[in-house]
Structures are given as C-alpha cells and as structure tokens.
Design goal:
The complex is a heterodimer. Chain A is an alpha/beta fold. In chain A, 45% of the residues lie in helices and 15% in strands. Chain B is α/β, with parallel strands linked by helices. The longest helix of chain B has 26 residues. Classes of the chains: A alpha/beta, B alpha/beta.
Chain lengths: 411, 409
Amino acid sequence: MNILMLGWELPPHNSGGLGVACYHLAKALALKGTSIDFVVPYSAVHENIDFMTVHNATKLSPLDRYGLGAYDSKFLISGNNDAETSHLTDIRSVQRQYTKYVERHIEKGVATYDAIHAHDWLTMEAGIRAKQMTDAPLIVHVHSTEFDRSGGASGNPIAREIEYQGLIVADRIIAVSAVTKRIIIEQYGIPADKIEVVHNAIDTASFDDGYEYDRRTYKYLESLKSEGYTVISAVTRLTIQKGLTNLVRALAMASEKYDRLALLLAGDGEQRDELISLASELGVSDKIFFTGFVRGKQWRDSYSVSDVFVLSSISEPFGLTALEAAHHDTALVLSKQSGVAEVLHNVLKYDFWDVERLADQIVGVATSPALKTSLKQNVMQEYAQLSWDDVAAQLHILYGAARQPRERVLV
Amino acid sequence: MSKRGITLYLHVHQPYRLRDYTVFDTANTHDYFVDPDPLSGRNNEKIFRKVADKSYRPMNQLLEKLLQTHPDFKVSLSITGTLLEQAEQWGQDVIDSFRRLVETGRVEIVAETYHHSLAFFYSRAEFESQVEAHKAKIRELFGVETSVFRNTELAYNDELAQWADQYGFKGILAEGWDPVLDWRSPNFVYRPEGTKDISLLMKNYRLSDDLAFRFSNKSWAEWPLTVDKYSEWMNASINDQPLVNLFMDYETFGEHQWADTGIFDFFEDFVGRWLADENNTFYTVSEAIEAHSPAGTISMPSTVTWADAERDLTAWIGNSMQKEALQHLYALEKDILRTEDDQLISDWRRLQTSDHAYYMCTKWFTDGDVHAYFSPYESPYDAFLYYMNAIRDLRWRLHAHHKTGGLSG
C-alpha cells in the first residue's frame, strides 16, 4: 500500500506531541509493509528515519518552523531576511509553499497513492489539493482542533475555516479521542459516522536509550523530597489550552491543607508570566519551579523527579505526556477533558474547572503512600498495552475502507 | 551672614547582579553573582570595568582638579559597600582616587546601609548591622567617621529620622517633595518631626534632575543646557535662601550622561562660574548643617523616596512578586546569621540590595514603556525566577552545611 502522508514535523525537529505521534504511527505502518512518502514543511536530515521517504517542502530550517509553532496559528516568522525565504513571512505562506510542493510532487507522477493521510489543519489544504489531483481518498487525522488550541474559544477564523473545509472534503476523519470526535461533531457539524476514534499509543522501546535518572538535575527538588515533600509536575507548553491557572490555584488550595508540596512546571509559553504573577498573588511562588523549555535529560528527569503528574488541560485531544509520565513511574491526575483519560483507568480524574477536586486529589496522593504506590504501579501495567502496532492495524482497515462509500456514490 | 552654598551630594553604587540562575543550578552551584559570559549584561566585573572607565575614573579626576583649583569646592559622597568590594576586586586605583579626594578634607563620606538595602523596612537589627558595617568599611578604607545618614533610594520617613537622631547622626537626607514641603522651599535646613538634634537636608529635585535626567535629552525644551542658563536657574532658586541641595547618582557623570554629551565640561565650567561670585560657596553636608539652624519642622509619616513621579517605594515593593521575594529573603535572617558563615551571610546580604527588587518591577512593563525598564534581565518575571532560585539555594546551603532552617517549597 502506498500512502502520501502530509505532516508538519518529525523528531527531532518537533515542538510537541504531533511530531512524535506521526513518527511512531508511520513507523508502525511501515513495519506492516506500507510505503510512505512523508512531507514536512522544512529542510532537515532525519537520520533516525529509514522506514519511509521524507520530503522537504521548503528550504526553511526547522528552527524557523519551531518559531511558527505547529499548534499556534497566531505566530509569525520575523526577521528572516534570506532572499530565498523572505517571502515565507508567515504560516500561511509556508502552507502555500507546502501545497505547491505537493502539487509538483504529484505532477511528477513517480508514485500512485492508495490514500492521502493529512495531519491537522496545517496540511489540510495540501491534502484537499492532492485528493483533487489523484482521486485517492483523503483521510484527515485530527490531533487537535483550533477549538482546543484556543482553550475552548472559536480561535483563529482562518485556521478554523481551513479545518472545516478539510473535514468536509475528507473521505474519513480520524480523531485521536472521543473528546476530539465530539468537538468535530459539535463545533464543526460533521456527521458522527464519518469519524473514527483511533487513540494514540506509546513506543516504550524509544525510551530504552540507556537513560538513567540523574538526581542532580533537580537537586533542590530532591532535597525537598527527602524532607517529605511531594513533587507534582506538568510537562507542557505554558498556554491557555493547558488549564494551568487551575493547577496553580489547586496547588494553593491544597497547600492550605498540606504544606509539603512543590509544583514543577517544565516548559515555556506565552502564559508563563501570567502564571508567575498568579502564583505570587496566591502566595505560592516559593512552591512553584519554572524550568523553561526542557529537552533531553532535563526533560526525562522532569518526569523522573515527579511523584504526581497532572494533565490539567481544558481541552486535550490526547495528551501523550501522560503516557510518558506513566513510563517514568508517576501517579497520574488527568482532566476528564483529555483523550488520554479515555484509555487509562488507574488514574485520578477531575473536570478541568473543578479546582477543589484537583486540590483534594493532590492532597490525597501526597498524604497516602498506599494510594500513590497503587496508582503508579497499576498505571505502569496499563499504559504499556497501548501499542502503535494496534494503531497501524486500525489504519490499514481504514485506508482500505475509505474509498468504498465514495465509489458507491459514483455508481 | 554665611555664604550661599551648593550642597553637592553624589551616590556611588553598583549591585551584584544575579546571573540567569535556573532551577537546574539551584543546590548545584552557588555562584549566583558570577556570570561567565563576558558579553552578558549580568557580568558584574564587565559592568564595573565599563562604568569605572566611563565614570569613576574621569569624574574623580575632574573632582580632584576642581578641589585643587577652587579652595571653596566641596562634595559629599555615599559609596556603598558593594561598590567598594567591586572596586577592591577590579579597580584598586578607583579606591585610591576616592582616598585622595577624602584626604583633601573637603570631601565628606555619607553613611548608609552597606548593601544598599531596604532592611529598615524589614528588620531593624539587620538594618543597624549594615549601617555599622558601612561605617566600619569607610573607617577602614578612608580613616574617617561618617555623621550624616542617607537611606537606600533616599527612602525616608519620620521613624527613620527619629532612629537616626537617637543613633547619633547629626544630619539626614531626603527628597524635597512638593506635597511634603507645600509652600516651603527645599533650600533651607529643617528639623525632622519628633527629633532633638538632627537636621534634615532636602533635595532640590528640579535643579538636580536637570543634570541627572534631562541634561542630554534632546526633546527637552531647554536642551542644550548651557552654563549660563543653569547658573541663572541656580541664582533664581537660591535668591535670598541659604543653600541648594543637589543630590544625584554619581554615575550621572559619564554613565547616565556620557562624556560626549559634554557633562564633564559643563560641570567644570559651572563650578567655576558659581565660585566666581564671592558670595557663593559649596558645602559638605555637615557644613551645611553646621552653618544653618533649622528653619522649621518637616513631617513625613509615610515613606518618600527619590524615585518616579510617585516618589514612593512601589518600584521596589509594589507588586506581589517583590513582596513575596523580599519576605522569603528576610525570613532567613535568624538562621543565616546563626551560622556565622561569612560567605553565606555575604550572599544573603547581597540579595538584599534593592536593585534586585527593582528589576522585578512591572509598573512600566505593563504600560509597555519598556524603555523606562532599567534592568539587565529580559523581563521582571525572569528577574523574579532567578532571584527565587537563589533564595532556595541559600536555604539548601543552610540545610546541607549547617543543619538548620527548613527547606521549603
């Protein structure tokens, strides 16, 4: 089977979970004998990828693409004066370049495709164009919607319109969770039977790179732990979608009942300053540790140092970080508005707005070694059963079936 | 009848800025004040060397020349302990040049807190320790006793004056702020409310700020400021009054106002012009107090500083981050002092320097007037995070090395 896959990022040039999911999903498909042409909007060598062909749609460096923020439709590239790339001044220009590249690629006619698989709004226009040119079915894979990214508001109207067009034109839609499926139905008016839920998974093998937790990375937090403190963490972009103001409020509320708590906020984002201010207004700055953007060892260690991982999102299509946290032996507290909460059971759940309940759960885990240990151990059993191989099997069925309703219409 | 005099008082200070001290540094390295990056705006050595070349060396040279040329020229200086430490480390000749000034007998050193802190508002015991430490440092380096006091940022209230009076200071400095003075002029010596023996000198902020802030401002209607014009203003202000108190940062000369603005030549010419009239002179702060009895009593129940249009402490303790940070810092006082660990105590005191809190000020930042935001950090929030990490590290050191003081978080 030949698949034209349209993506926005792949590791190590990823800014978030989208690239990670695309990588593992493509790899699992390839292992099942699928041939994949994967298009990215920048130029870079992906040394770790030999299971598919990666196509570079523009001459932009991945760093410029980071600036765009795969998830942030508000972001503009600035200060790029290179003659060749200067006209790519914003995300719309990059998308147009990307679509042109896909058109030229199809015109060359080097491959015929059984399906076109487009990931998120960023690539949907190119997906629609590819469908028009090849008559192959278009599968739109929704990892997040503009509704999620804007924290439950209507968001950027252009991004929303492109999403809408993509969802309408698509032959099949994959939602990464029931949460996302519901948003696609309610916010975009798409019929439920056009949408399939395929949850993300985790590749535990990718963590086996000789990593060992280094206690010196977060030495102060380790000292606090030896004094009986419980470390709560969120590894996340600091942005409105993630519901972090509620987490900070819950920490303040929890601290009134039980003082030995520390919160590690690993990541960066436009909401950071607001969170710093809020923490000082609530008198809990001292309990909150801002790391800035973390990668590599600091990133893995941020999970390892944690006792409790909180996914506080207002709207989270999936939430891969929760699985990563589970792998690093933490107890999980998940907002019910996250996709990952649909697949994990040995976790505590709360509605993202319910600060009091979150505070109560934090205190509960912090004060009960038995609860903490049970949550950690049981979720460890559970998360590892989510495999990309199963995801690939589901996709194969989907690719095969995508064409059929359309052919019936044509008859 | 005594002569009409200018009381020129210059404040010399540099803080120990924190480097970008992160969560990952906390409890691992304790070198908050050492930025290895030579290009960093937080590299204290680099900044000291730059300011020494632009300001301390040329200005001391000019002051020395003026003292030689004009027997009536006098100046008062307050030099913080943190500046003196930096000069001892990176510019001994700067100390030597200050010493030559003091040796003329016409340069008075003014007392203040060693660490340029706001300790008066947090801990009276710590405040007095820093005043003592500063007196000791001045004695050690210059062989003189101080007798007139200025508090950090000229932060002044009646309680401070009463403290200084009881402590034995004969004079104290404050802002000559209109809402306090009302119909009165700053050009007299006053007596602070509730004191017996101490006199108050108040800054003539208009004439002071003409030099300190406006001198090189080309959008100022009076630019360029000439010696003629400034002398005229000075004469108009002093008229039949005894003195004009010109208080400003020493770094006005060469650093805030660069040499190419003409500030040094202007100042030299102005001093000459002023002293050409035999009715005119300069006073040190002590002389101003001795020559003039208080003209009345001044009361400032709430704190007045020399900063901003508000003349209050909001630039340092106005927002919740600043309040929280300082509260955590001063909460360590007893545990830190009990260790008798000189390095630890010194680091704790360096964090008391008011500049740190100033870098966390958001009041201009939120107005979008980032040009008014005078800070080596990207934002007040960054300044706050680095500072909190440094406080945590102090706690860790207390805990690890002295088994005292709880870690907290």
